[in-house]
Amino acid sequence: MSLPGNSLHPGLLAVAQRAGLTKRLMDRWSSARPSNFDAMAATLDIGPLDEATGLLSHHPIGVSTGIFAGDRGRWPRLVDDACGISSYVVELSALSGGELPGLLSYLGSGPALPFRYLSVHAPAKNFDERVAVDQLCELPLAVRSVVLHPDVIVDVALWKRLKTRAVIENMDDRKKGGRTVDELKPIFKALPEAGFCFDVAHAWSLDPTMELAHSLLDQFRASLRQVHLSSLDSAGHHIPLRREDAQLFTDVLSRCTDVPWILEAMPPAGWV
């Protein structure tokens, strides 16, 4: 079936494909407005349809194991949890330095992992910088990216050892650095092989107009390695993607379709 992908809203396209609609019906609905989506979805008996559905139809997409706080440190269980949402992409989150030895032990045991893209989130608290770099350098080659918080980097020269696996994430409004283009430029200059992890919600926290988000991609798009996707609550914590944020983020995320997306909160209800 030939799909009118250029004219059909991405959310409607995703559900239309799942529903097996004919090209004639899809063409007929190609100019549908988002306000009509829920009514059309109800007629198909396939659940609510909104902007989040369109974004979450991105491929490949997966989750950060950080969303499963109750299983923190239980790596086999965390991997099983992540596979329950996606077996294509995962970010193994070791946000505290004490979690790294267990992760190294688990990955060193040679588990059969299904993921096509495997990243690790480096510690952002309770860690010794030199020790953490030594441990991260021991990660197996299957780990393609190591996500770093630039605001906790003190001796940037140490992190050069990660080479192309170093991936710098833009920070949110609670942090004191690594938030804007100007604040990130020195890190990328010092780590010229590093990639970029674009956290769209972090950019939103600093500039809800999304101009900062576009500026970050203007500057670092060539180094883009992955996307972090979620909404944020009033305290800056990651929460499931809200409909209004999905609508707001769609334009900037249309510039990131060729890299994996990592959910930093549970998918919206009904997605899995």
How many DSSP E strands? Answer: 10
**Overall average residue pLDDT:** 85
CATH topology of the largest domain: TIM Barrel
Work out the strand percent. Answer: 5-15%
Topology overview:
Blueprint: H1 10-19, H2 23-28, H3 37-44, H4 51-56, E1 61-64, H5 75-83, E2 89-93, H6 100-108, E3 117-121, H7 129-136, E4 145-148, E5 166-169, H8 181-190, E6 195-199, H9 200-206, H10 211-220, E7 224-229, E8 231-232, E9 238-239, H11 243-253, E10 261-263
Parallel strand pairs: 1-2, 1-10, 2-3, 3-4, 4-5, 5-6, 6-7, 7-10
Antiparallel strand pairs: 8-9
Give a written overview of the molecule:
The chain has 272 residues and is an alpha/beta fold. The chain folds into two domains: 10-49, no CATH class; 58-263, Alpha-Beta Barrel (TIM Barrel), CATH 3.20.20. The chain is 35% helix and 15% strand. The protein has eleven helices and ten strands. The chain has an eight-stranded parallel β-barrel, surrounded by four helices. It has a two-stranded antiparallel ribbon with strand order 8-9. It is globular and about 45 Å long.
What's this, in brief?
With 272 residues, the protein is of the alpha/beta class. It has eleven helices and ten strands. The chain has an eight-stranded parallel barrel with strand order 1-2-3-4-5-6-7-10, surrounded by four helices. Strands 8-9 form a two-stranded antiparallel sheet.
